[in-house]
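URGENT: need a sanity check before tomorrow's submission.

F., can you look over the Cyclin-dependent kinases regulatory subunit record below? I want to be sure the sequence and structure line up before it goes out.
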Amino acid sequence: VDACRGRFLQVHICINENKLRLVSTRPPQLQARVVEAEAWRRTRQRAGRKRGTMPPIQYSEKYFDDVYEYRHVVLPPEVAKLLPKGRLLSEAEWRGMGVQQSRGWVHYAIHRPEPHIMLFRRPLNYQQQNANPNINK
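C-alpha cells as predicted:
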C-alpha cells in the first residue's frame, strides 16, 4: 500500500532466472481514474495556453442549508469547452481540469443555462468530522 500518496497498489513478486522483481499495479478502477485525470490535464494543456496565462478559475464563497455546504466554481471558456455534456465529473476529473478545493466536495448538479458553472456540495462539518475520526465513537 502506498499510503503516502493515498493510492492503493497491488504488489506482485516475479521470480525469473533466480532474480526477484517487484511489480506494482493499481486496481483497474483506480488506474482508470488516474488515466482519466491525466487525459484531462493533457487536454487542458492542449487548449493552447501555458500555465499562468489562462484566465483564473473563480471560486464562490461557501453557502449553507441544514444538511450541506455549497460552493460553485466558474470555469474560463477554454476549460469549460472541455466539459463532457450531460454528466457529472468525478473528483479525479475536476481536479484534472485544474479545480482546486479541499477534500469532500462532490460535483452534484449541472446548471443547464450556464454549464461552465460547476456546482459542488459536501456535508456540513465535513472537515471537523474527518479531522478527528473518533468524534462519533
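My own read: The CA atoms of residues 86 and 110 lie 8 Å apart. The helical segments are 28-46, 77-80, 91-96, 126-131. If you see anything odd, call me.
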